Structures are given as structure tokens and as C-alpha cells.
Amino acid sequence: xxxxxxxxxxxxxxxxxxxxxxxxxxxxxxxxxxxxxxxxxxxxxxxxxxxxxxxxxxxxxxxxxxxxxxxxxxxxxxxxxxxxxxxxxxxxxxxxxxxxxxxxxxxxxxxxxxxxxxxxxxxxxxxxxxxxxxxxxxx
Length: 139
Description:
3 helices, alpha+beta, 5 strands
């Protein structure tokens, strides 16, 4: 999927990825974690890589591994290309802004990889499939 870097696009992208996760056997908790991490990654791109510009491109690709055991989400931007700092410790002070999204990604995903490109950055998130199927009544 391709979206513009407008925060108005966050909810739709998150819902589509959560639905994809459910369709491929993730439980609702795991699907929600994937959605939250994607939401945080997109927010970081909009805020930091694009400095708040609302018309810049973001590509999001979700796929399952060939054996169906893990979901891979690739998020590509053409922003500043600055690699985020390492995830902060769990001892974040609630009054200090920033870092919570990186901490969530590090804790909720099995793998988080940043790959600088000639222009911008590519982030890949991976999560293994586990748990019950999503509750279809909530869709």
C-alpha cells in the first residue's frame, strides 16, 4: 500500500495490517501489537524523517514468510535517512517525551531492522505467528 505522510492515514493503514494479520492466523492480541508497532513506525517517519510534511510518500508491504510462520512488514520512506537511536531502556520516565514507540517495537516484534537507502530508510518488522485466530465479530 502507498500512503501520503498525513497523520489522517494512520488509522486506515493500521486497520489494514491488523486485518491482514488476522487473515493469516494471528490472534487478536498479536495483530494489535503489529498494528501498534506499524502505527508508531509511521508516526516516527511523519514526525522525524519528513519533519511534519503531509504529502511525502510512504510504502508499506506486508507478506507472510514462505512457510507461513511469520509476518514481515516493510516500510519505506524517502526522508532524512537518519537511523533512529537504539531503543531506550524500559526505565523511561513518563514525563519525558519520545522513545516509547521504539521500545514497543523492540518488545512486541521478533525482529526490527533499519536499512538506510540512497535516499531515505527501509524498516522491516517481523513477528512470528502464534495464538488463536482473531475474533471476526469485531470486524
